[in-house]
Amino acid sequence: MSLNKAVRIVVLSAALIGAAPALHAQKAKDPKAPPAAKAPTVSKAIVKQAQAAQAAIKAEDWNACLTALAAAEAMPERSPYDDYAINELRVPCAARSGDFRTTAAALTKGLEIGQANGFMDAEAIKQRHKQLMQVNYQLKNYAKVNEYGKLAIAAEPGNRDLRIMVGQALYLTPDYPGTVAFLEPWVRELEQRNETPPEIALGLWTSACVRSKDDGCTLRAVEKQVAYAPSEEAWSNLYLLLIRSAPSDQTLNVLRLGNEVGALKVGDDVTEYAALALEKGFPGEAQSVMETAIAAGKFGGPGKATPGASNLLQTAKSAAAPDRATLAKQAKDAAAAKSGTPEVRLGQAYLSYGQPAEAVAAIERGLARGGVKDLADANLSLGIARLKAGDKAGAATAFDAAKGNPFIQRLAGYWKLRTR
Prior knowledge:
Strand content: under 5%
Helix content: 55-70%
Structural class: mainly alpha
Radius of gyration: 33 Å
Number of strands: 0
């Protein structure tokens, strides 16, 4: 199984880096002026260098900016705000010169000084956590992405981008169990709020399960993919998981679903389906699937067939002709039967010959009469027949009623997704 759109390239955002802070030199105090709260300012010790750095930023001369800040940092008797200002000014200069290690160091130092001295309010701190997530992602320092990601998510639990970045970082660490443990509960939370989980999160979860070689985990993730981000790849992955785990008496039903979702990619898949349909007494279904596959070129090109495929098709045709001729008698016998089981079987026969309207009518009569031996299978067939007849709402109702057999109930749930 492959991962579709699982890892996104993250670009350090100019908006997150932010503009340089407005800095001012300290002024002499007026002894007659009333006391007032003042914003912190840089000291005289570094004012020239700070102003030079600001001028370089305005001119987009990042090297000159970094040189001026290095000179400021060499000055003695600096205040805590001086050091804070130096690091804040260094952030845009280092980032725009492509030096993300220096950017990360400046962001971290600025946060430490800003928090300790009250230079940053809660909003600025929250923004800083996001900046540190991004720059550490660029540096592939995924442990730091996760560290700051937890803080950022705590402040903005509804921010999907933050959660996706943490999920990506866990995946790239690589920590596949951690990726699953982080993303699966989030997907459940979104479902509980009737929100659609992001496709990229579902892809990460699925791939982490696959790489962990955990089929149960993979099935849970793929089920969400086909529910919220259906694609031919997702359906094919689901089919592969199902065909490996299906009870032997449900293999044909799984192959039918695989055929419906386009998961039978090669001739061998099709011949397995056709041979089993023939064995189970549905020669018309076997003939139809073989003819469609040959026309689609699954045996070496459109219209071509291998000797084995030709023989199987001929066998199906030979069996289908006399079987189809018995439908009238089957209908008469079913109408006279005490239980509804013969009507259901008749409906399944009609369905195998591509007659969904007749199949719907027969299965409905059988269910109404009662005494049907396998209600789950009957309702699954009714749902498929209604779907192929164009009645999506009726199909969904039938699929919901396919209960009593856990595996068939699961299959019916997947078929129901096709009614959307």
